[in-house]
UniProtKB/TrEMBL annotation:
Lineage: Bacteria, Pseudomonadati, Pseudomonadota, Alphaproteobacteria, Sphingomonadales
Keywords, ordered alphabetically: Transferase
Organism: Sphingomonas endophytica
Protein name: Glycosyltransferase involved in cell wall biosynthesis
Pfam families named among the record's database cross-references: Glyco_transf_4, Glycos_transf_1
Gene3D superfamilies assigned to the protein according to its UniProt record, in alphabetical order: Glycogen Phosphorylase B (3.40.50.2000)
Residue span, Glycosyltransferase subfamily 4-like N-terminal domain: 16-186
UniProt GO molecular function: glycosyltransferase activity
Domain named Glycosyl transferase family: residues: 195-348
Length: 378
């Protein structure tokens, strides 16, 4: 592709927010042009079993590798596949997504410094920091040290919120390596695929979307549901990413749906009254803007970047994490009319700040700045 900027995106998983980001922002990046009309030639490397998560991305742009959980063997296969993709594509930009891709591939790309040709610019999107995960103090310190060290060999680290930016600077990350770019999704979702079973329930219909893990706080929502089985009904889209985790003990008013494609997610959003995000940490919160785009209020934890997305009392409610009683009270706090008003405000806020087009424009500008081509852009 003559005159194009070759960009290789590498992901260790495409479930959850990483997959949503790639599926929504990459097509907008493909559509981006500088003033000379030069396109971005986007290629993607991701696990074979996750390729269905990117229906908006051209199949010809996708290369896959076989992921078997998060075993040592899988990480070695990621390293091998990444190096092969790099040698094949010869990208000018390598954009890494999530912790494991960042930790495995960035040291590998140091080899590119001794190979003939221009060294690629390396961009890293952690999509939420591993050091925010609850664990021992020693583990957290080790991850912070590793991420801070790797940041110094990364041309740019994209953080998702001002809250993440402040935290990284406070932890000693080099500020000149950091850039805040909000996530975005397409303005027009795909048509909802009607759910044949519907959601015939007179209780408040609460939807959860995300991984079934400690970060996302599903256990807090389950505990809240147990407190009011006659007042709320919960549906959960997603599953555990790590195999072999403990089975969830679900009350009768909580129903797991597994991972769904985008049209089926839209169908569930259309039937829900409110979307719950009881996360324990969150760099941004893509699910919140998906809900706002669909015209649904959001009840979210007051942590990380979520207060930059959800406006208390305007587009939803903010509650402390790990507090089932507060979560339940916020879910039940508003009348249907108030929820409709919040939904309208949320839709307007989404269009003003969180579209894929705007996010892609900022990412494309970053790419061209790193390559010294920004002068060619209007």
């Amino acid at each position: 592709m003559t005159g194009s900027v070759r960009v290789l995106h590498i992901a260790e998983t495409a479930h959850g927010g990483v997959g949503t980001y790639l599926n929504q922002v990459l097509p907008a990046l493909v559509a981006d042009r500088d003033t000379a009309g030069a396109p971005l030639d986007i290629r993607v490397l991701l696990p074979a079993q996750d390729s269905f998560m990117l229906p908006r991305v051209d199949d010809a742009a996708i290369t896959t590798w076989r992921r078997d959980g998060r075993s040592l063997w899988s990480l070695l296969m990621l390293a091998k596949a990444s190096w092969h993709a790099y040698r094949t594509v010869r990208p000018e930009i390598v954009h890494l997504h999530s912790t494991f891709a960042g930790m495995i591939v960035r040291p590998l790309l140091l080899l590119a410094r001794v190979l003939p040709g221009r060294r690629p610019q390396v961009v890293y999107s952690p999509h939420g920091w591993a050091f925010q995960i609850a664990g021992s103090r020693g583990r957290r310190r080790a991850i912070i040290w590793l991420e801070r060290t790797l940041a110094r060999i990364t041309d740019r680290v994209i953080v998702l919120s001002d809250a993440e930016m402040r935290e990284c600077v406070a932890l000693g990350f080099p500020p000149k390596r950091l850039q805040r770019i909000y996530n975005g999704i397409s303005e027009a979702p795909p048509p909802a695929l009607p759910a044949p079973e519907g959601w015939p329930d007179q209780r408040l219909k609460v939807l959860f979307i995300g991984r079934f893990d400690h970060q996302k706080g599903l256990d807090t929502l389950i505990a809240a549901a147990r407190l009011a089985p006659d007042r709320i009904a919960v549906r959960c889209i997603g599953a555990s990413v790590v195999s072999g985790g403990p089975a969830l003990d679900l009350p009768d008013n909580v129903a797991p749906l597994g991972w769904l494609d985008e049209p089926r997610i839209m169908a569930q959003l259309a039937m829900a009254d409110v979307v719950a995000m009881p996360s324990r940490w969150e760099g941004f919160g893509l699910v919140a803007i998906e809900a706002m785009r669909a015209g649904r209020p959001v009840v979210a934890s007051r942590i990380g970047g979520l207060p930059e997305v959800v406006e208390e009392g305007v587009t939803g409610r903010l509650v402390p994490p790990d507090d089932p009683e507060a979560l339940l009270a916020a879910l039940l706090a508003d009348t249907p009319e108030t929820r409709r008003t919040m939904a309208e405000a949320g839709r307007a806020r989404f269009l003003a700040h969180f579209t894929a087009r705007d996010s892609a424009r900022q990412v494309a500008t970053l790419y061209r700045q790193l390559l010294g081509r920004e002068a060619a852009r209007s």
